[in-house]
Design a protein that fits this description.
It is a single chain. This protein is an alpha+beta fold. 26% of the residues lie in helices and 32% in strands. It has helices at residues 2-17, 19-22, 236-246, 257-262, 264-272, 292-310, 326-331, 345-348, 351-361, 375-390, 398-402, and strands at residues 30-33, 37-40, 47-51, 56-62, 66-71, 74-79, 83-84, 89-93, 99-102, 111-115, 120-124, 131-136, 139-144, 148-149, 154-158, 164-167, 176-180, 185-192, 195-199, 204-208, 212-214, 222-229, 252-255, 276-279, 316-317, 341-342, 366-371, 393-395. Strands 22, 23, 24, 25, 26, 27 and 28 form a 7-stranded parallel β-sheet that branches. Strand 12 and strand 13 (139-144) form a beta hairpin. Helix 3 (236-246) runs parallel beside helix 10 and helix 9 (351-361) runs parallel beside helix 10 (375-390). It is elongated. Bound molecules: zinc ion. Zinc ion (ZN) binds at residues 229-230, 280, 284, 320.
């Protein structure tokens, strides 16, 4: 009995003396050198090596003033104030093979393990030209810099009635970093071998891919492209810009070359507000009635005046009256864009009718034809935006719509 009590007391004393033995961190603790600094031996007197700036070190133990660290093959001591924590960057392991992790960036560095294709690792700044320094759970070391690329992200939702365990690596035996409740929104960076790496506001790690579902496509993903032709107009275009800004709406302006020449500042403010600029010919002529040479001049001179005014090219084209043929399309360097909803705003000049035309026909992917040269169109715009916003539409440029 006394022997047992003695043994238990010794065990408790042992764990008090060496608390880090009884608990291991879920991931390696990495810090960086702030400058060229000296690595001391355990007498804290003798310099073993000079470490370069931005050298990643693994913290083995932290005391009041000194940290016991590992830098490549060396283990020694550095004053805490000379080390700094850095934000790691999540990177995707790519290429065909699994990549070796080495203790150092030397040719014959000791092999620590491997990082798996399509896994996410944490990348730290490195003091090596050809190697990056990465962390994967307990593993930390040097990997060929060609091993990783920036991951793409996807929104996902935790789809499990029970809490989902977040782990440090893609393995059921790796450390638990935390838990995620049902319906938590996460950002997924990779999905491989049944595991997904997710980040949340609080922490990041691996979860079973089967516990995720796609973020529900809500109404917000409906898109509509409002287009305004025949400007820029000194008064109406300005009003339209103001209203669009209020609703954080982006639109496309198909401008006429001679109007740009008269109102360059207006076009500049349209472009500066982030709207798309399209070419709508120089004199608003029906191109199909012109000889090819003249039709081409209508397009090219407008391109030139747009470029000279805003410093970049028109990215879309719309033929006046929607009149085009194959020969004209062959002259274009940008997409030829018509419309799916004709508001006839130029004809009736009635804000209520303009609103009604949009209301009746709007659906995801619609391109709405309006004209920023009529006051009645500007008068209709706010009610159109309010109505569409209530229905969950996002207002995008024509090119944004085409690219989705
Ligand atoms: Zn027009």
């Amino acid at each position: 009995m006394r022997k047992i009590i003695f043994f238990v007391v010794m065990m408790i004393l042992f764990s008090l003396y060496f608390p880090h033995h009884s608990r291991t961190a879920a991931t390696a603790n990495i810090k960086m050198t702030t400058n060229t600094i000296e690595l001391f031996d355990d007498s804290l007197q003798l310099v073993m090596q000079e470490l370069p700036q931005n050298a990643p070190v693994i913290i083995l133990a932290e005391q009041q003033q000194w940290s016991k660290v590992q830098y490549k093959e060396q283990i020694g001591y550095i004053k805490n104030e000379l080390l700094t924590t850095v934000q790691a960057k999540y990177m995707l392991v790519h290429s065909k093979a699994d990549w070796p992790i080495y203790l150092s960036d030397a040719q014959q560095g000791q092999l620590l393990g491997r990082i798996y294709l399509n896994s996410i690792v944490e990348m730290f700044p490195s003091d090596s030209p050809n190697y990056i320094f990465i962390r994967y759970g307990h593993l930390a070391g040097y990997v060929d810099k060609q091993a990783v690329v920036e991951p793409s992200t996807k929104k996902k939702i935790i789809n499990d009635p029970k809490v989902v365990i977040v782990r440090s690596t893609a393995s059921p035996s790796s450390d638990v970093l935390g838990h995620l409740a049902a319906n938590t929104e996460v950002t997924m960076l990779t999905n491989f071998n049944g595991w997904a790496f997710v980040t949340t506001k609080d922490f990041s790690g691996y979860v079973l891919a089967s516990s995720l579902k796609n973020a529900t496509t809500n109404n917000k993903t409906k898109k509509i492209a409002l287009t305004f032709d025949d400007g820029p107009h000194p008064k109406v275009t300005r009003q339209i810009l103001k209203i669009l800004e209020k609703y954080n709406a982006k639109a496309t302006f198909f401008v006429v070359g001679n109007a740009v020449q008269k109102n360059p500042k207006i076009l500049k403010s349209v472009a500066d507000a982030g709207h798309e600029i399209g070419n709508h010919t120089y004199n608003h002529t029906k191109l199909t009635t012109l000889p090819l040479q003249k039709a081409k001049l209508q397009i090219d001179s407008t391109d030139a005046v747009i470029k000279a005014t805003i410093g970049r090219n028109a990215t879309v084209f719309r033929p006046p009256y929607g009149a085009y043929d194959k020969t004209i399309v062959n002259q274009l360097n940008v997409p030829n864009i018509l419309w799916t909803i004709d508001t006839l705003d130029w004809k009736h000049r009635d804000p209520k009718k303009t609103l009604a035309a949009v209301q009746k026909n709007a659906r995801n992917g619609s391109i709405v034809l309006m004209h920023d040269i009529h006051q009645t169109t500007a008068d209709a715009l706010e009610s159109i935006l309010t109505m569409l916003q209530k229905q969950g539409y996002e207002f995008v440029t024509v090119s944004e719509m085409l690219n989705n």
